[in-house]
Design goal:
Elements (H helix, E strand, L loop, with lengths): L1 E3 L2 H13 L4 E6 L5 H13 L2 E6 L19 H11 L3 E3 L3 H4 L18 H4 L3 H15 L4 E5 L3 H13 L5 E5 L19 H6 L1 H15 L5 H13 L4 E10 L4 E2 L10 E10 L2 E10 L1
Parallel strand pairs: 1-4, 2-3, 2-5, 3-4, 5-6
Antiparallel strand pairs: 7-8, 7-9, 9-10
Helix pairs in contact: 6-7, 9-10
This protein binds pantoate (PAF).
The site of pantoate (PAF) has 10 residues, from strand 2 and helix 6.
């Protein structure tokens, strides 16, 4: 397995593979890899001849008071995991390689980025789309793999690829959870033992929402109330949002009965102490 910090070297290698008729899968990450990333890498390995993992903590997707500086990093551990799965190339650029000092071109989108995380993190999706577009230009893979935990990100990237006619298949992969239900996330590492226990309220509250829908509840306000009630009982938890949207458009819906056979996304963001965690489920109505 090769590790490259250089755009040209990485692009040349991927082009060489393509010239040989090999398929390439890309797994974009910010590192500190966990079982969720592992499942993406394994899917990429199954479905492609070559696998590239990018590891880059992208400064422009963090807001001014967010955790860019403290975001966990451990390249040696990440490289060992990639090696064990049979990844062919890690692209690990530094910020200077990715962003010239006078960098000023961004990729942005109307609509899908305005709700959910876009409300509390107004510049986040512009940063994500910009870096993912750059990665797609540097690594012209056949397929790119993203986790459903970041469901809004997945919807945004699928639409970005469609709108900008980027020739790449976007593959969404299921959320991977700890045995007790907590969705795997690099940010779980911020939680102290008491907060780790409190964080179970995310999956517990979503289970309550799911149960209500399965029992026939269709009023979104009522489903959101039930989810919020569960979260409200956890003293270390503070709700950022509890929302139910049409998954393809990321637009709020009021009545699931009107969802017309489409997929709905029930998504929550909750602060546990200072750590903001997200979780969700998607349901076909
Ligand atoms: O999901 C992530 O880890 C990041 O948002 C991504 C897609 C790698 C872009 O920096």
């Amino acid at each position: 397995m090769k590790i490259s910090g250089k755009i040209k070297e990485t692009r040349d290698q991927v082009k060489e593979w393509k010239k040989q008729g090999l398929t390439v899968g890309l797994v974009p990450t910010m590192g500190y890899l966990h079982e969720g990333h592992k499942s993406l890498m394994e899917a990429a390995k199954r479905e492609n001849d070559k696998v590239v993992v990018s590891i880059f903590v992208n400064p422009i997707q963090f807001g001014p008071n967010e955790d860019f500086a403290s975001y966990p990093r451990d390249l040696d551990k990440d490289a060992a995991l990639c090696e064990s799965i049979g990844v062919d190339l890690i692209f690990h650029p530094d910020t200077e390689e990715m962003y010239d000092p006078d960098f000023s071109a961004y990729v942005d989108m109307e609509g899908l980025t305005k709700e959910l995380c876009g409300k509390s993190r107004p510049t986040h999706f512009r940063g994500v789309q910009t870096v993912v577009s750059k990665l797609f230009h540097i690594i012209p893979a056949d397929r790119a793999y993203f986790g459903q935990k970041d469901a809004q990100q997945l919807a945004v990237i699928k639409k970005m690829v469609r709108d900008l006619s980027i020739d790449m298949e976007i593959v969404g992969c299921p959320i991977i959870r700890e045995e007790d239900g907590l969705a795997k996330s690099s940010r779980n590492t911020y939680l102290n033992p008491e907060e780790r226990q409190a964080a179970l309220v995310l999956s517990r509250s979503l289970a309550e929402g799911k149960k209500a829908i399965e029992a026939g509840e269709r009023q979104v306000s009522e489903i959101k109330r039930r989810i919020s009630d569960v979260i409200g009982k956890e003293k270390l938890a503070k709700i950022d949002y509890v929302e139910i949207v049409d998954f393809s458009k990321i637009e709020p819906v009021a009545d699931l009965g009107a969802a017309g056979g489409g997929e709905i996304l029930c998504a929550i963001a909750v602060f546990i102490g200072k750590t903001r965690l997200i979780d969700n489920f998607i349901m076909k109505m």
